[in-house]
Amino acid sequence: MGSTSRREFLKTAAGLSALATGASAVGVAQAQPLKPTPACPGAAAPTGRQTEGPYFKPDSPLRASLVEPGMAGPRIVVTGLVLSTACQPIAKALIDVWHADDRGDYDTNGYRLRGHQFTDDQGRYRLESIVPGIYPGRTRHFHVKVQAPNRPVLTTQLYFPGEAVNARDPIFSRDLVMQVTDAAGGKAATFDFVLDLGGTRPGKG
Ligand SMILES: [Fe+2]
């Protein structure tokens, strides 16, 4: 670096320091944190915990698509992020999903409509499946377990907007409703999970 550019750099750094003063004590030399998403501008409440229900099975297959040949029911693609409460995307987070088929039945013998995947390096996941059917006593829902690496498991459920049974299901939570739109061949849904990492500080182990 020539002396001119070094001077420019120092000037810029000084300017940034001045900007940072008063806002926070973070030094300019520190690694830049990942940008918060527009949907999560700096702090978020953790995703609510819900009952596991009677149909969870461990050791689901690793797969992002639960759709199998000949499977009935409208298709759905669910996408989103796994974030910390500080809005940092969490890479390699486990997402384990299980749900009823279009008639409201769970596969308790095998692993139909069961699968797990991991978020990519930007904390994203993408699940392909069918829209779950409704069974007595429950509104339409996915069951999900989400786990940041080496952190406790969050067990929860995801819901659909505009379902008549939502209001009569005592487990239903408005905070766990996905955004759902019509898409080619079925539905497209989005939901961002927020995990409480228990007081860890990004970049400080
Ligand atoms: Fe269920």
Seen as an oligomer or otherwise, the chain set is single chain
Can you tell me the residue ranges where pLDDT is under 50 for at least 5 consecutive residues?
1-30
Major sheet: 5 strands, mixed
Q: How many H/I helical runs?
A: 1
**Total beta strands:** 9
Secondary-structure-based class equals: mainly beta
Task: Let me know the average pLDDT.
Answer: 85
Which small-molecule ligands are present, each listed once? fe (ii) ion
Strand content: 25-35%
Q: Secondary-structure element sequence? A: HEEEEEEEEE
Molecular shape: globular
Radius of gyration: 21 Å
Distance between the termini: 33 Å
Helix content: under 10%
Structural notes for this entry:
By secondary structure, the chain is mainly beta. Helices cover 9% and strands 26% of the residues. The chain is built from 1 helix and 9 strands; from the N terminus they run H-E-E-E-E-E-E-E-E-E. The chain has one helix spanning 3-20, and strands spanning 75-84, 94-98, 114-118, 124-130, 141-147, 154-159, 179-183, 186-190, 193-195. A hairpin with a 2-residue loop joins strand 7 and strand 8 (186-190). The structure holds fe (ii) ion. The site of fe (ii) ion has 5 residues, from strand 5.
